[in-house]
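Input/output pair, single chain:
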Amino acid sequence: MTVKANILGLCFLALAGCRPGDTATQPTSGGRLEVQWAGVSSRRFAGSAQAYLCRRDTLLEVLAARADTGVGLVFVLEDSLRPGQYPVTSSAVGATWRPAGLAAIRWVNDTAVQGLEANQGQLILTEVTSAGVSGTVDVRLKHLDTPDTVRMTGRFDAVAVQPAPDSVCGRIKS
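Output:
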């Protein structure tokens, strides 16, 4: 499997566990992620975010979840955590180049869980400091089960970075 396919799967696993009141996925302090998307459906999302760095795989995952909505951003780092542009392409492409980015959103509507994955655009890390990471999001996402798309834009600010759990690191194959 490609790096992107594995990362997208991990991202959705992390987001699938997000439930209201779940303290494991909802940090009590730190940075924020704010995004909005428009297209076949339109929504706004803002919430506390946490970042997990897996040095072994050189991946940074930024996750935010609140109530019925979760947003995941993955930065496939070139060699270390630093500011830069992370182009996003469809995981179906099977690309293994670095740097690269991935994004996914999911929410529950009246009848089903909606899931979308990014297939173009870019993630930008604008700042990497001891306080955390900041950046912007501008991606087009495709619904997993239909040809419908949305454009998601937004930003994240001062999201604290912590080491990723060992159970996640090392599972990515490039």
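Confidence is low (pLDDT under 50) at residues 1-28. The chain has one helix and ten strands.
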